[in-house]
Design a protein that fits this description.
The chain is of the alpha+beta class. Helix content is 19%, strand content 49%. The longest helix is centred in the middle third of the chain and has 17 residues, at 107-123. The chain is globular and about 45 Å long.
């Protein structure tokens, strides 16, 4: 697939809503006991479909940048967005979405690689962070393949019943090697 990655201009995309959808058949079950957290992969009885919406360039982001992947017909295949968090000098990936018809074709990898390179060049962060949910196994596996590892959880991020709902916020991160920051 011939794709190009382009900067998304804030004034064109600030009010646009993007739909995030995925279907999952498994999740990471969270168990907490005596200061010990255990994540165990489990299967749902039947596939679960998740849908939510997000906007780019939200006001809580310190200095967001976003990129889009376009095909040869100028169709937007996916987006990625991130922002420096200067208080602890990390770059947070706030949104990544690949249209369902374009998944498993390298679009997400190209978007994330591009954003990471631009962030290193522009902000020189010490690490990358992102959030996903324990029920989004495809995202967890993708991020892990891209070098991100589990660094924390928030069992009250979305509701008071996140654990029971099998939708716990999971934080993943990736350290940036010193030689990458100095190049």
């Amino acid at each position: 697939m011939n794709i190009s990655i382009r900067l998304l201009e804030k004034d064109q995309f600030i009010d646009q809503t993007f739909d995030f959808e995925y279907t999952t058949t498994s999740y990471m079950d969270v168990s907490i006991s005596n200061w010990q957290i255990t994540l165990t992969k489990k299967s749902y009885d039947q596939p679960i479909h998740k849908h939510f919406q997000s906007k780019l360039f939200e006001s809580f982001l310190e200095c967001p940048i976003a990129f889009g992947a376009y095909d040869e017909d100028n169709q937007l295949l996916g987006i990625v967005e991130g922002s420096i968090e200067s208080w602890h000098h990390v770059f947070r990936i706030s949104n990544i979405l690949v249209n369902e018809s374009s998944r498993h074709q390298g679009v997400g990898k190209r978007l994330l690689d591009h954003l990471e390179k631009e962030a290193i060049k522009t902000y020189k962060p010490r690490a990358f962070l992102l959030e996903t949910q324990t029920c989004n196994m495809n995202a967890i596996l993708f991020y892990n393949k891209m070098g991100y590892t589990w660094i924390g959880i928030d069992t009250l991020s979305y509701s008071n019943t996140d654990v029971a709902n099998t939708e716990v916020r999971i934080e993943m991160g990736k350290k940036i090697p010193d030689e990458a920051m100095n190049s």
